[in-house]
């Protein structure tokens, strides 16, 4: 029993000592330290919030820049415009097929030709007929044979196109105006309406020419007769 009592009884090293009681001064110091730590923490949080607000405010406040062209540009708007400009991606231009002409004779496409460039006639160079169909006529022939006036060639819409060529008879006479025969014939029909009307106009012109020729002959004959009579009277008087 004594042994058991010895085991149950706590040893001298296992005794629990009571916690020492803090003095009033120590408790006051601990409280001051806690309050200071709390104040420092609140100050740091307030500083972070103020920095965030100031950053947002400064982002909204922009400067006004003088463009030098009579107006002002907002710095923020200029920055946004530069950003948008940098983001613009220029798409490549679409591939456009060339405008081909179709020949009125062979009905094949072609890019350009002498007749299309000179007379706006859709005929390729292979189908060009210089001897007959696409023959050129002078302005004098267009007026004499087809009975066209200057206004018919130059002012009636559309004015007939022509090319200039040195006069083969005398280069000093100036350049000749050469017209495309088929276009002159078409303009002739626009003016006279039909072949019959053109023939009647030609006949009338020929008749007028004969009348004028006869008048000139009569006038000349009369002048000669008058001169002879005057001479005869002069001889008799002598």
Automatic annotation (TrEMBL):
PROSITE patterns recorded: XPA_1 (PS00752)
Regions of compositional bias (Basic and acidic residues) in chain numbering: 200-213
GO biological process, one term: UV-damage excision repair
Coiled coil: none
Cleaved signal peptide residues: none
A GO molecular-function annotation: damaged DNA binding
Region (Disordered): 1-24, 200-224
Domain XPA C-terminal span(s) in chain numbering: 133-184
Identification of the protein by name: Xeroderma pigmentosum, complementation group A
Cellular localization per UniProt: Nucleus
A Pfam family of this chain: XPA_N
GO CC term (a single one): nucleotide-excision repair factor 1 complex
Entry keyword set: DNA damage, DNA repair, DNA-binding, Metal-binding, Nucleus, Zinc, Zinc-finger
Lineage summary: Eukaryota, Metazoa, Chordata, Craniata, Vertebrata
Assigned protein family: Belongs to the XPA family.
């Amino acid at each position: 029993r004594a042994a058991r009592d010895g085991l149950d009884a706590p040893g001298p090293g296992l005794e629990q000592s009571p916690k020492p009681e803090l003095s009033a001064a120590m408790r006051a110091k601990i409280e001051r330290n806690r309050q200071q730590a709390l104040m420092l923490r609140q100050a740091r949080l307030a500083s972070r919030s103020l920095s965030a607000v100031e950053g947002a405010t400064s982002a909204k406040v922009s400067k006004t820049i003088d463009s030098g062209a009579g107006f002002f540009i907002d710095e923020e708007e200029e920055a946004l415009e530069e950003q948008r400009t940098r983001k613009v991606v220029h798409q490549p231009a679409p591939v456009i097929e060339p405008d081909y002409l179709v020949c009125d004779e062979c009905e094949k496409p072609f890019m350009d030709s002498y007749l299309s460039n000179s007379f706006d006639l859709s005929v390729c160079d292979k189908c060009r007929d210089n001897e007959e169909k696409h023959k050129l006529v002078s302005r004098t022939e267009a007026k004499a044979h087809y009975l066209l006036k200057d206004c018919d060639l130059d002012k009636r819409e559309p004015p007939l196109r022509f090319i200039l060529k040195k006069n083969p008879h005398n280069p000093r006479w100036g350049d000749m105006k050469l017209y495309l025969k088929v276009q002159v014939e078409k303009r002739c029909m626009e003016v006279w309406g039909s072949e019959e009307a053109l023939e009647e106009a030609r006949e009338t012109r020929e008749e007028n020419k004969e009348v004028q020729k006869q008048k000139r002959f009569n006038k000349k004959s009369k002048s000669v007769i008058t001169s002879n009579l005057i001479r005869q009277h002069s001889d008799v008087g002598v």
